[in-house]
Amino acid sequence: FENIKGTSGDQFINLCKRYSKRVKLEFGLQTIHQLEMKVIGRGNRLSKVTSIMNRLNESGINYEVSLIYGIPGQTYKSFFETVEFVSQNGCPNIRAFPLRIPRNSNMEAQKEELEVRETQMEYNVKQVSSSYSFDSTEYNMMHLLAGQLCVNALPPITFPDSVDKESRRLIFEE
Q: CA-CA distance, 98 to 69, in Å (whole number)?
């Protein structure tokens, strides 16, 4: 979002509009919360994000916004707020991915301080599954919400039978 500015930004938007049937843009917003942005070393001005999303929507340009869940400092509520922000600003496609900490990164050096626990997934890939701000139950709630995000809609939340009533209650209480 931050790179679409000035005359070159206008030219880019016009070019995408001209070829809108063949173009799909992807923006890695990750989160709308400053604390979470700081932890992952990414920053966005929300006024700029909103402005660009409005231009894309008005121009009929196909795009998606990618988010991250499992960021130390994040909670289910803050993740939901990010999803809600993107949805309310008219994004037709929202995707969310679990945080994976890059090797030799500042975040890797802070794992102990951030109380990060990782779960090893398929192909030896690790992803954050809890931190000082969320436990594994809240992580699972974020994971369920991420799974509900799909192309062209934010459908009503449904849960598999494996999600107990208490977890469902926690999701809607916040």
A: 5
